[in-house]
Amino acid sequence: MNESVPERQGIALVFLFIVGDSFVFGLARWAGRDLWLSFLVAIVLASPLILVYGRLGSLMHGQPFSEALPRLLGKWPSRLVALTYSAYAWRLGCFVTGDITNFVQAVSLPDTPQVVMAFGYAILVLWAVKEGIEVLARFSSVMIIVVLLILLTALGLAMTEVNLQEFLPIMYDGFWPVLQGAFQILDFPLLETVLFIGLANALTTKKRSAYKVLIPGFLLAAFFLMLFASASVAILGEEAYMTSYFPVFMSTARIDIALFLTRLEAVVGVTFAIGTFLKISVCLLVASKTLAHTLGFSDYRFLVTPLVLSIIPGSQWFAKSIMEMEQSATKIVGFTDVVVQVALPLVMWIVAEIRMSKERKNKAGKPSGI
Amino acid sequence: MVILIIFGYVVVGGVELLLWKERPWQKVLVYLLLLSAAATFSVLLAIDVRLPVPEPLGTLRNWLQKLWQ
Predict the structure, then answer these.
(1) How many domains does chain A have?
(2) Residue A368 falls within a domain, yes or no?
(3) A350 at interface of B, judged by CB pairs closer than 8 A
(4) Are A320 and B50 an interchain contact pair (Cβ–Cβ within 8 Å)?
(5) Is residue A119 situated within a structural domain?
(6) Quick check: is A364 in a domain?
């Protein structure tokens, strides 16, 4: 089935996927007050890889994953790659579900079992994934307005609490913490965009390459995250930012306009819930599609229910407490992530380019029929 | 709890299979296998919350660490 997502909707989808569950965490906390520098370094380091993801998407020429990948890599390597991405997408979906259940339990429903919240999310995700990428993209094009409106309003109102002196002195501890912070942001959430290789057929058309969706979405999300994280440091101070689980949530809680407009952290929770829903849906969509290709099926929808149901126990498996969840979100580099986000796409890209150039040469060398 | 989990999976699987318009045996087999795997996973986690997480790339990581040192 041909799926196509308009450019603006695609950008909204990528933006919400990256911002989704990451903005509430203490991103680049290793860098402390220099986290804005970490973001800039991370954007520079991530850009070539996002271009590689875009190139892989463009090489698929808008064909479905199950047709394009065997053409680029060969039958069995493509199935192995698809299985790896399926496992990675499912694992990421479990982590994100764990993030939202732990967050809700920590900030508002301490006595509610996490399984109950995970079950509610799973039902919603099950419905969304079965509807497909087009519905998810339309949903994100509407929700991006809500999310931006809420977060930018909160940021504007929090400006009265900002103290720019918190950013000084610059690089007092040297460049190493900045680099550590940059690697942490690369690992989570910037390079998680790798999952969009699995949805490239929807983002690419004959007239439009995947770059036009991936790059603006990535840059917008990265600068938005930088703005929010920097504002949180300026409001809370370096120490509080580094030691709290959800610094953005804490910084919006500080907003107090004439004792009238307070407790705005609840709206941040709402945006977190929306972003998380979208991110889990994209993860499960990619997991289902790539698993369907691995098993040799063209339709993915019949695989959605078992995969979605398994994220309920999976969310309790990978991160068993809020501390483990926070550690997994703010670790500097994960080995699995490096393999899936960096090594595998680079290998795929090189192999695909070699095969494509051979194909072009063969076509050019063939004598035209007389 | 274990019985409740298995019952839940059986109900979901049964209802969904009934709702399918066509039931090619390959799809039904894969669906049932995956659903059984999900049910087993849920039961194992219900029995032992501290179920260890396997690391398929652990051997590769250890080997690279040895090379690095």
Answers:
(1) 1
(2) no
(3) no
(4) yes
(5) yes
(6) no
Q: Which residues have C-beta within 8 Å of that of residue A166, sequence separation ≥ 6? A: A33, A233, A234, A237, A238
Cβ contacts of A331 on chain B, cutoff 8 Å: none
Residue A311's CATH number: 1.20.1740.10
Distance of residue A308 Cα from the nearest chain B Cα, in angstroms: 9
pLDDT digits (tens, 9 = 90+) for A262-291: 777 888 888 899 999 999 999 999 999 999
Task: Note the pLDDT tens digit of each residue in A320-355.
Answer: 888 888 888 888 888 888 999 999 999 999 988 888
Which residue of B27, B40, B44, B59 to mutate against A (max A Cβ within 10 Å)? B27
Helix (H, G, I), strand (E, B) or coil at A110: coil
Q: Nearest C-alpha of chain A: how many angstroms from B32?
A: 9
Q: Min CA distance, B34 vs chain A (Å)? A: 6
Angle between helices A75-107 and A65-73 (to 10 degrees): 130
Name the residue type at position A39: F
Domain boundary assignment for chain B: 2-68
Residue A250 within a domain:
yes
| Interface check A84 vs B, CB under 8 A | no
Q: Do A317 and B53 touch (CB under 8 A)?
A: yes
- List, as one string, the DSSP characters of A84-101: HHHHHHHHHHHHHHHHHH
Domain of residue A21 covers 7-352
Structure ipTM: 0.90
Non-local (6+) Cβ contacts of A281 within 8 A are A125, A128, A129, A136
pLDDT in tens, A176-205: 999 999 999 999 889 999 999 888 888 877
Q: Chain A: nearest CA to B47, how far in angstroms?
A: 12
Asked if B34 and A306 come within 8 Å (Cβ–Cβ), the reply is: yes
